[in-house]
Amino acid sequence: MTEANPTPERRAGLSTRCVHAGDVRDPQGAIHTPLYGHSTFAFDSTADLLDVVEGRAEGNLYTRYGLNPTIRSLEHKLADLEDAQAALAFGSGMAAEAATFLSHTKTGEHIVCLGDVYGGTFELLGENLPQLGIDTTFLTAGEVDQVPSVLTDRTRIVFFETPTNPTLDVFDIVTISQHAHAVGALVVVDNTFATPVNQNPLHHGADLVIHSATKYLGGHSDLTAGAVAGPAELLTPIATWRKNLGQVIAPEIASLLARSIRTLVVRVRAQNVAATAVAEFLNDHPRVTGVNHPSLATGDQAAIIKTQMRGHGGMLSFLVDGDAAATAAVVDRLRVFSIAASLGGAESLVTQPITTTHHGLDPAERARRGIADSLVRLSVGLEDAEDLIADLAQALNAA
Ligand code: PLP
Q1: Whether pLDDT at 323 is above 70
Q2: Which of 174, 259, 180 is nearest to 220 (CA)?
Q3: Per-residue pLDDT tens for 324-333?
Q4: How sure is the predictor about 6, in pLDDT bands with cuts at 50, 70 and 90?
Q5: How far apart, in whole angstroms, are the C-alpha atoms of residue 230 and residue 96?
Q6: Relative to the CA of 95, which ligand 1 atom is closest?
Q7: What is the pLDDT of residue 27?
Q8: Which residue among 90, 92, 94 is best mutated to probe the pocket of ligand 1, counting the most ligand atoms within 8 A of its Cβ?
Q9: Residue 364's pLDDT is what?
């Protein structure tokens, strides 16, 4: 098989790379990398097998190792999108996070986690890893200036999402990376919300990028997958954990994910535009007391966004002027938005974070993080923005 390379003389643009990067033409001429669901691959000789086993040649060996043509093709595409040397694909975003933390920290070492992160990440860092003697210091978005004082010579990883879930705070990747690197810690950024269309954390000093590919990369709410991208040297130990924990993506899902990534740029750019229109509508609505979307940011946040983001994203959240029950009533009146916990699909979703993503968090901790009972999070899909705005208007305007 040969790798497709439509513009060999110069680096292709992001849309072209989403369509073609990593794709190989097989002898049948299939237009994309075929789906190889096979668990194992045969060799012409023991010498050829040893070349792959001992790392002298790239090749296919055993699917749980990730050495499968469909998975390797997807990983080339993922690496290309994040301008990384390499990437690893996983069965979920949590699998990618867990393998990254386990391979780059050990008992007695320390992680720093900034801002609001996905609830599962809170649980992994706050409850699972302490059982292995790996502890995490959590700082809220408002405490980010304390980063230098919580870093120690035991700190191995500084982890954060930007923009964050669900308050859409942004962090300055350049400055945080400078602090982390000064003590020899790695910076790991979860780029799920921004996507490689709107932000490439590795360009700003991050060492590794993580995705829940279940979200925008998959884009249709019909697959679960994860990815880590970065320098090969940092990915090698992660690949060992992935192999031995059996966390690799299934080839069938890898093929589906590569299919989805081919339309990533048009989807995300449309979602950027629609979410900005929805944010502006909500910002002017009398029953809405606050809107969180990067397009509305001011001051330092606006300056960071200008430096490191190319688009504002399809995620936003807003505060309803009412209690938890009144807010739930607004959510329940929505007809175009579906009540669901995920994000990043073609269909618009709504969730009240206290009932889903942040349900498990102690109410005092939620309050400290600005996750109010009246906060509503939207994942803006690919419907017409006018229909989304009309739906929000009827839900908010009802008595
Ligand atoms: N990171 C973010 C920002 C998420 O929203 C999620 C899931 O909602 C995850 C990671 C975990 O990904 P997955 O559900 O694919 O394991």
Answers
A1: yes
A2: 259
A3: 999 999 999 9
A4: low
A5: 13
A6: 16
A7: 86
A8: 94
A9: 85
Helix (H) or strand (E) holding 350: strand 349-351
- Tell me the CA–centroid distance for residue 118 and ligand 1, in Å: 6
Give the list of residues 6+ apart from residue 187 with CB closer than 8 angstroms, or none. Answer: 157, 158, 173, 176, 177, 180, 181, 201, 205, 206, 207, 208
- At 167-205, the pLDDT tens digits run 999 999 999 999 999 999 999 999 999 999 999 999 999
Question: How many CA atoms within 13 Å lie on the side-chain side of 376?
Answer: 34
Q: Whole-prediction pTM value?
A: 0.96
Q: What DSSP character marks residue 13?
A: P
Q: With contact defined as beta carbons under 8 Å apart, do 44 and 50 qualify?
A: no
Minimum-distance ligand 1 atom for the alpha carbon of 341: 8
Using CB atoms within 10 Å of the CB of residue 126, give its burial: 0 to 12 exposed, 13 to 18 middle, 19+ buried.
middle
* Residue 106 appears among annotated catalytic residues: no
Cβ count within 10 A of residue 173: 23
What is the chain's length? 399
Amino acid identity for residue 88 in this structure: L
Token representation of residue 146 = 């304390």
**Ligand 1 pocket residues where CB is under 6 Å:** 92-94, 118, 120, 161, 165, 190, 192-193, 212, 214, 224, 226
User: Is residue 160 very low, low, confident or very high in pLDDT (cuts 50, 70, 90)?
Assistant: very high
Q: Are strands 226-230 and 208-212 parallel, antiparallel or unpaired?
A: antiparallel
For residue 2, is pLDDT > 60? no
Tokens of residue 352, six digits: 């009240």
At residue 359, the pLDDT reads 81
Task: Give CA–CA dist 232/304, Å, rounded.
Answer: 29
For the question of residue 215 being annotated catalytic, the response is yes
Contact 126, 134 (CB under 8 A): no
Distance between CA atoms of 254 and 322, rounded to whole angstroms? 44
- What is the residue-wise DSSP string for 219-263? -SS----EEEEE-HHHHHHHHHHHHHHT-BPPHHHHHHHHHHHTT
375-379 vs 349-351, strand pairing mode: antiparallel
First-to-last alpha carbon distance for the chain, in angstroms, is: 63
Helix (H, G, I), strand (E, B) or coil at 237: helix
pLDDT at position 311 over 60: yes
